[in-house]
Amino acid sequence: MTTPLLFTPLDMRGVRFKNRIVVSPMCQYLAVEGRIQDWHRGHHARFALGGVGAAIVEATGVTREGRITWGCTGLYDDAHVPGMREIVEIYHAQGALAGVQIGHAGRKASTARPWEGAGPLEPGGPEQAWETIAPSAIPARPGWHTPRAMEAADFERVREGFRAATHRALAAGFDFVEIHGAHGYLLHTFFSALSNRRTDAYGGDLAGRMRFLLEVAETVRSVWPEEKPVFYRATATDDAEGGITLDDTIALARELKARGVDVMDCSSGGIITGVANAQPAAPPKPGHQVHLAAGVRRGADMTTMAVGLIVDPHQAEEILQAGDADLIAIARELMADPNWPLHAAKALCVEDPYAVLPEPYAFYLRRRGEVSYRPAPAQRT
């Protein structure tokens, strides 16, 4: 019996993904001063026991002011390392790899948690607002706080934040890191002409707008061991006139690959600017971003990860079989069904689907399959 690609190992540098199912970063907004809490341990244990091949810890601030909300995780202090190490150990205990997404929220920092409205924090509130930075002084949305345009000292502070966070990710034992360059956060706003109006070396043409992204990638790669991969999460298209196109992202992917980045994790949207030509994207459909991963994979000859409403195992397998991506990232579907890998293995007719689970689960579930469960006949009265 041929093993489906979804359950075929993938070797990358010095690590092995036991299957192609990756937990996509999912912000939980429940950290305390950047530190992992019991919630995070339980959140990740569900996925580890469910049989995923790897997982990426949520968007994690490289500086304190680079967090999205007060509840976001951080790697800007040595005190964050022990909690992160616990998450790594949860995955390693089940033979899965662990990664962490490191980034800076830029002009989308200093906001409330989603269930508290997700708007900008106000001065004097229970959780104080803080100053935000961006390539240009353009608010993320009409009526939001205006970020301060970055100066030379800001560039150095952010680069140092990425460098130090990468060191701490290594100390925590992560197998790979993912640089967050998507969803309207700092690196994305440098890349998009809709949010970057600079006239110096970090703005203007495509080469200028990608300059800071590449400097960050070089910083991370210089710290991260050669035998461990680096991922890059990209908004591959802004879905807006004058914004990032897939061709722009392919050009970026080539430059990132030349600097030692191994995988592009392809997303879209997030550059909400309030300008007249920023049109909302069409309602998403299952697999609505797969074509972006496929475009980068073929155009830049780069390993890619597909993400975005991938919910059906056959859909995931078809993406891999078509050569559109090498890894499949899943988020909300795993929240709803942390045993998705088992159900995928059954749907794709893996010879022993229970082998994706830890042995105590696999042993008892195999035995359960030997028993025919039927409701007892109704008793006559």
From TrEMBL:
Query: What cofactor requirement does the entry state?
Result: FMN
Q: Does the keyword Aminoacyl-tRNA synthetase apply?
A: no
> Which domain of life does this protein belong to?
Bacteria
Keywords of this protein's UniProt record, alphabetized? Answer: Flavoprotein, FMN, NADP, Oxidoreductase
- Give one GO molecular function term: NADPH dehydrogenase activity
- Its transmembrane ranges are none
Q: Quick check: keyword Oxidoreductase in the entry?
A: yes
Do you know which InterPro entries this protein is assigned to? Answer: Aldolase_TIM, OxRdtase_FMN_N, YqjM-like
Enumerate the spans annotated as NADH:flavin oxidoreductase/NADH oxidase N-terminal domain: 6-348
PANTHER family listed in its UniProt record: NADPH DEHYDROGENASE C23G7.10C-RELATED
Its recorded name reads: NADH:flavin oxidoreductase / NADH oxidase
Supply the source organism's classification: Bacteria, Pseudomonadati, Pseudomonadota, Alphaproteobacteria, Hyphomicrobiales
